[in-house]
Write a structure and sequence with these properties.
By secondary structure, this protein is of the alpha/beta class. It contains 14 helices and 9 strands. It has 2 domains: 64 residues; 194 residues, Vaccinia Virus protein VP39 (Rossmann fold, 3-Layer(aba) Sandwich). Strands 5-4-3-6-7-9-8 form a 7-stranded mixed β-sheet, with helices on both faces. A two-stranded antiparallel ribbon has the order 1-2. The N and C termini lie far apart (65 Å). It binds S-adenosylmethionine.
Length: 293
């Protein structure tokens, strides 16, 4: 919003100015983003913003709106500015310590939940690399009686995940550690269902990432160790029998180049494996069942 122009007086004027500013800064979806950010600055949701377009705005609201728009023009993701993102119909708080939950990750929940509901007893669920806690918390809330453990190496991410679990009323045991074996050790027994959305971006893909991702989301959440996108899927498959009971299953989110290798690894390890496509027809989730002992 330019200083040279007269100060916007109403929510509607502020919104018009915000749209213009973000479009000029080439922010994708400038219209929608302006609505979200202006609504947030005024303490409203999008719907109520449209019902309040004639509402006068005070200086504090205007200053807040300006701050949000400047941050967005520097490609800070909207979810970090709003402090939240919706996942599986629930509001998950996020900060720059955690990956912003993605819609395609909901597919991990869909398949893990469908599988868990076929089991005779409430499942023991593990989540490796929990970040905001979105997978662990959603499964704890979707699967009655489930016992859920979730691990991350980042204590800052775990603080976000713990706060989310508490606010959403989910019972999850959070563990700090850096390997799937630490999750298993904390739980004491093997899992019926193990889910993971591990870091799987290769270093060679860095330049192709949107600035929002590359410059703002945690490196630890994005990039696979040793520049090998298959690092964690290989490790989870190799350790599957130590981590998961016979008759249980592993669900891992995959990057767009990983499905053939993941299927091959899982089948060579004697697991019954298939890959589920996301809405963009990209092979996205490996489901690998551990044969009964
Ligand atoms: C791609 S993010 C996924 C976060 C969340 N599960 C989601 O789906 O939005 C991967 C997470 O793995 C964590 N991580 C990276 N290396 C790890 C390690 N060695 N041990 C445990 N967690 C790790 C990161 O801190 C990050 O929170």
């Amino acid at each position: 919003m330019s200083e040279a122009k007269e100060r916007p007086r109403t929510a509607g004027e502020m919104l018009a100015r915000a749209r213009e500013f973000l479009a000029k800064k080439d922010v994708p979806d400038a219209r929608l983003e302006a609505e979200l950010l202006v609504a947030h600055a005024l303490g409203l949701d999008r719907l109520h913003l449209f019902l309040a377009l004639d509402r006068p705005i005070d200086d504090a609201e205007l200053a807040r709106g300006r701050e949000f728009l400047v941050r967005r023009s520097k490609r800070e993701p909207t979810a970090y500015i709003l402090g939240a993102r919706e996942f599986y119909g629930r509001r998950v708080a996020v900060s720059s310590a955690v990956l912003i939950p993605r819609p395609e990750t909901e597919l991990v929940v869909d398949h893990a939940r469908a599988f868990a509901r076929t089991l005779a007893a409430p499942p023991r669920v593990g989540d490796f690399g929990t970040g905001s806690g979105c997978l662990a918390i959603t499964l704890a809330l979707e699967l009655a009686g489930a016992s859920v453990w979730a691990l991350d190496v980042s204590s800052a991410a775990l603080a976000v995940a713990r706060a989310n679990a508490e606010r959403l009323g989910a019972s999850v045991t959070f563990v700090e550690g850096d390997a799937p074996s630490a999750l298993r050790a904390a739980a004491g027994e093997r899992f019926d269902v193990l889910v993971s959305n591990p870091p799987y971006v290769g270093r060679d893909e860095r330049a192709a990432l949107a600035a929002e991702v590359r410059d703002h989301e945690p490196e630890l959440a994005l990039f696979a160790p040793e520049g090998d996108p298959d690092h964690w899927v290989r490790r989870l498959i190799a350790d599957a029998r130590e981590l998961i009971v016979g008759g249980g299953a592993l669900f891992v989110e995959l990057g767009h180049r990983q499905s053939a290798a993941a299927l091959e690894l899982a089948r060579s390890a004697g697991l019954e494996a298939r890959v589920h496509l996301d809405l963009a027809r990209i092979p996205r989730v490996l489901e690998a069942r551990v044969p009964r002992d």
